[in-house]
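FW: tagging you since you asked about this chain on Friday. Here's the raw sequence from the shared folder, copied in full. Didn't touch anything.
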Amino acid sequence: MKNRTTLATDCSRVVTNGYPERHEMTSAQAERGFTMIELLVTLSIAAIMVTLAVPNFQSFLLQSRLTGHTNDLVLELASARSEAVKRGANVTVCASSDSATCTGTWQQGWIVRDSGGQVLQVHTPYRGTICAGTTSIVFQSSGFPVAGIVFRLYDSRGTGSGRTITVSAQGRAVTS
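HL: got it, structure written out here
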């Protein structure tokens, strides 16, 4: 094994046999930091990026909420159709203000209930607007609805960004 004796000339500088010498920092390098101009330029760039990102992020959040509520309604319509076939009885999806009875508007929430009146699913209120031709849709034991229905969901951005759910005569819910 190689001899690794340490030769010390002073406390700040140690040289070991077989290893390179340690580089020392000058006082100018040790005290180097950000200048005020560098800091202001960095903060300005960050402020510009945040200003550009916030409106897009807000639009993204609104679109995500609208898509989520649309998907919830489609899922509950499909679930009601499936339950009607499984139970061999009518199942109703209806607007509900109290999560128990078929009274109110679609914005106040909706429920799925069987022919005996038992509530199978409850959905909380929607902050936007839901337009539909009726306050309920009934799926028969065959899975077909008594009548088709079209839902339009909007948020605070208005009708231009709305989503449409169409329940066909065969009971299939399709979004657009």
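FW: The first strand starts at residue 6 and ends at 10.
HL: agreed, and DSSP finds two helices and ten strands in the chain.
FW: great, closing this out.
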